[in-house]
Hints:
Layout: E1 3-8, H1 28-44, E2 49-55, H2 59-68, E3 71-73, H3 81-95, E4 100-104, H4 113-123, E5 128-132, E6 139-144, H5 158-164, E7 168-169, H6 176-179, H7 185-194, H8 198-204
Parallel strand pairs: 1-2, 1-4, 2-3, 5-7
Antiparallel strand pairs: 4-6, 5-6
Amino acid sequence: MQWTLVIPLKPLARAKSRLADIADDGVRPGLALAFAQDTVAAALACPAVADVAVVTDDPRAGRELAALGARIVPDAPGEGLNAALAHGAAVVREWFPRSAVAALNADLPALRTVELSRVLESAAQFPRAFLSDAAGLGTTLLSAAPGRELRPAFGVDSRSRHRASGAAELLLAGVDSVRQDVDTGADLRAALALGVGRYTAAVSAGLLIPEC
């Protein structure tokens, strides 16, 4: 099964405010963009991924991610993460009516294509499925088979909400890079330990990152 991934990205100036302890206002937008660049680059290199659609209104992010090969979808609703994902999924289904669609976080700088392939292969067995984040409370990927609605419920405690919505939880070992999103300095340290992509490696060099 081939997938189209929908990746949401808020305006860079408002992204990653919880990294304020390690990066000031002038650095955080570049970090957020680097996370997204490494995520998109790894996703596009995955054999199971046919296309990546990034939902964003940020001009800089749009230019940089389009240069990597992503399709850029304007955030027409402008009503937050779940509305952006639902809109992105609807646009993808207009392009590719029978596509399998998966929402993927934009802050997975250690993402490995082989691990993403394993997650998507497992997700293909279910009408809807999700993968929890490293903390075990959130979600980093939510999938919908052809003909199924995505029905995103990201945000606080999204693992419980996606489970309650009927999505199957993917209980996979060895896919840490797909689980390790970055919201805090400790998260970034964990991602660096896994091995981040070249964009994040360059921007994060020299940052003082607190111990976990």
